[in-house]
Design a protein that fits this description.
This protein is α/β, with parallel strands linked by helices. It folds into 3 domains: about 10-85, Winged helix-like DNA-binding domain superfamily/Winged helix DNA-binding domain (Arc Repressor Mutant, subunit A), CATH 1.10.10; about 90-200 and about 375-395, ATPase, nucleotide binding domain (Nucleotidyltransferase, domain 5, 2-Layer Sandwich), CATH 3.30.420.40; about 210-370, Nucleotidyltransferase, domain 5 (2-Layer Sandwich). The chain has helices spanning about 20-35, 40-50, 50-65, 125-140, 180-190, 195-210, 270, 275-285, 290-300, 305-330, 345-355, 370-395; strands at about 70-75, 85, 90-100, 100-110, 115-120, 150-155, 160, 165-170, 190-195, 215-220, 225-230, 235, 330-335, 365-370. It has a 5-stranded mixed beta sheet, with helices on both faces. Strands 12-11-10-13-14 form a 5-stranded mixed beta sheet, with helices on both faces. The radius of gyration is 23 Å and the shape is globular.
């Protein structure tokens, strides 16, 4: 459980005793505050099912830890006017979502709101790119002197080694053994937390999205490459070296095109944005298209080669999703990334391809996340809050 951050589904909560009960009750109160703010302590007690004295103790603790803060007083027809509490939106995080061609840098508050946001180009030179990101972060921080900055969160198109905290696997980014965390910590003077963009996106969907009651899900990001995050029994699965979820590098054809991971015929070689661009180039080599946005624009203009390229990509997306469904039997598969921009056109093709060899009784829902970039940034902020929550827990222990 992401202590202090987990979006608690009350249907699965079982009140226990001692420290377990304290942690569960704390998370229940924080979730009720998040979803009903501003709210009085009396309403917190009523909605959470906890005793007023327990709620009061927890709220005081959350105020001391700066998770929540007191605000206005409620207007009642009679009796004492209660003080309302809400999440402390003065607590903010600097975040970055890095892709092979661009990076987005932003400030996010506790409610997931953006105070500032900008985009920067990304090159094959990690030192130059990270230096630009640091400069953008420092400018943003200077523009909000009254805010309390808790740290930096970064979502990456690859896997972060849990020991070294360096990128372990990011074939589409092309950065080799560069210490991103160390460079950003030195440049900003703040602690940095990093994770794969799919994991960050799934964290945001769990906290800010509509996944109530969903305990088993997979989020698949489809952009330059393909990555995935796995939620199993309500917890993110990381696996050895944080490498769980690399379905994009499962081969569909061992004799297929060579992948950046040095394998052949990987799923992302057939179903990524780069694959769609390759299909178009093969069909119309005299009319180069550089970006997936341009390809989607041509498809909207009824360019037959662009339409065919995207539809071929969608067929392979569906084929790959069969592997995920067969391996994990999730309740839900969330799709994020570039492909969502053409979801209305491609959804029927993806679902038809997916259904061709999927058992009906274990078929998951396939849903798009329409704010993938926003979700990645919010997820990066949650990475910082996870670390903060763990630090508080360790102090208390």
């Amino acid at each position: 459980m992401i202590r202090g951050l987990q979006k608690v589904d009350l249907a699965y909560v079982r009140l226990a005793s001692s420290e377990i009960a304290r942690d569960i009750n704390r998370d229940i109160v924080l979730e009720v505050v998040r979803s009903h703010q501003p709210i009085s302590r009396a309403d917190l007690s009523r909605l959470s099912g906890l005793q007023p004295s327990t709620v009061s103790l927890i709220v005081n603790q959350l105020i001391e830890e700066r998770w929540v803060r007191e605000g206005a007083t409620a207007k009642l027809p009679r009796g004492r006017r209660p003080t309302l509490v809400g999440l402390n939106d003065n607590l903010v995080m600097l975040v970055a979502d890095i892709h092979p061609r661009r990076a987005t840098v932003a400030i996010v508050d506790m409610n997931g709101r953006f105070l500032s946001r900008t985009q920067l180009p990304v090159s094959t030179d990690p030192e130059k790119t990270i230096s630009s990101i640091i400069e953008a972060m420092l400018r943003m921080k200077e523009g909000h002197p009254s805010r309390s900055f808790e740290g930096v969160g970064i979502a990456l198109p690859g896997r972060v080694d849990p020991i070294t905290k360096r990128l372990r696997f990011a074939p589409n980014l092309g950065w080799r053994d560069f210490d991103i965390k160390g460079a950003v910590e030195r440049g900003t003077g703040m602690i940095v937390e990093m994770d794969n963009e799919a994991n960050a996106c799934l964290l945001a969907e769990s906290w800010f999205g509509s996944m109530d009651g969903v305990r088993n899900a997979v989020l698949v990001t489809i952009s330059e490459g393909i990555g995935a995050a796995v939620l199993c029994n309500g917890e993110l699965v990381y696996g050895k070296h944080n490498m769980a979820g690399e379905f994009g590098h499962v081969p569909l054809d061992i004799n297929g095109p060579e992948c950046h991971c040095r394998g052949r015929g990987c799923w992302e070689m057939y179903a990524s944005s780069n694959a769609a661009l390759r299909y178009y180039a093969e069909s119309d080599p005299k009319k180069p298209v550089q970006t997936i946005d341009d390809l989607m624009r041509l498809a909207n203009e009824d360019d037959p080669n662009a339409v065919a390229a995207l539809e071929k990509q969608a067929e392979y997306v569906g084929k790959g999703l069969r592997l995920i469904s067969a391996a994990l039997a999730p309740e839900m598969i969330l799709i994020a990334g570039d492909i969502v921009g053409a979801w209305g056109r491609l959804q029927p093709i993806i679902e038809r391809s997916f259904a061709e060899s999927t058992l009906d009784d274990v078929r998951p829902k396939i849903l798009p996340t329409h704010e993938a970039e926003v979700a990645n940034l919010r997820g990066a902020a949650i990475l910082v809050l996870q670390r903060r929550s763990s630090a508080i827990e360790n102090r208390e222990g």
